[in-house]
From TrEMBL:
Residues in Glycosyltransferase 2-like domain copies: 156-293
GO biological process, one term: protein O-linked glycosylation
Gene Ontology CC: one annotated term: Golgi apparatus
Keyword match Iron: no
Gene3D superfamilies: Spore Coat Polysaccharide Biosynthesis Protein SpsA, Chain A
Entry coiled-coil feature ranges: none
Matches recorded under InterPro entries: Glyco_trans_2-like, Nucleotide-diphossugar_trans
Keywords from the named record: Disulfide bond
Top-level taxon of the source organism: Eukaryota
SUPFAM superfamilies: Nucleotide-diphospho-sugar transferases (SSF53448)
Pfam family, one: Glycos_transf_2
Organism in which the protein naturally occurs: Myodes glareolus (Bank vole)
Protein name: Glycosyltransferase 2-like domain-containing protein
GO molecular function: polypeptide N-acetylgalactosaminyltransferase activity
Amino acid sequence: NILLVFYTNGTIHRLIVDGFHKEGAAVVQRPLYLEKDVHHSSKFHPTGRGNLRAGKSLKLILKQQGHVGWGAAEFHPGRKALKVRLVPKRFSLPSIFQQWGKGLSEAQQKEAQYLFLEFGYNAFLSNRLPFNRSIPDTRYSRCLQKTYPAQLPSISVILIFMNEALSVIQRAITSIINRTPPQLLKEIILVDDFSSHGELKARLDEMIKLYNRNYPLLLKLIRHTKRRGLAQARNIGLEATTADVVAILDAHIEVNIGWAEPILSRIQEDHTVVVSPVFDNINFNTFELEKYELAADGFDWKLVPV
């Protein structure tokens, strides 16, 4: 079918953009944490021992979803016309699920694909993994031999998120509680930068209540009433902290055993130093931990990693 539309240039632009947002709203509204080829940085953010990143470009995602695109869209400036070929959608399971999704029904496959498009990582698998799952200890032998003072500063952990999968947030919280010495962990502050997902409303509130029954007053939630961005979210979370040291993390992380002690010990020795640990990668598809090999990193005068 050929559709001939006569509009002004501005209306044509809105037609395309609005239609694109409807088909891939979650992908357009929030940037994916992409793997090496399209990630905004080849280094991990300082967000914990394991940092979750996704690895699909928007073009490839839409192709796998069954969108061939707008077809041979043609603009005719003189006539102010746009010709669009309408292409029917078809369902096909993306290749990223072939490693682990062979036993899924078609309904489960569709759910897995929807969740991937929504979050940019394998949220279907995340929802089925234990929150307290074990992950390998990737520290080098000489790191395992180090000892740290019995008295260390207390730490507040800030988790910042916007439309993150609830299971990913719960796994981050659980790992922080289980793998941080209780005498060091003062509080976990969650900063929601105006999420729109329904599961991050009442379900998140109930989850925090359950955690605080076992760990009174440990979790605090701050909700923004409008999108403020990462920098303001960090500052707002920082203002709510009460511990000696603050760790500001993304919510798509899992900390490992011994993550806090080296940081706190180094800061206690000299509070003027900048502590920059390295981070393993949590594979966006399989959720397996991928070790970050030992390397020497630095910064230039603009504080850009080199």
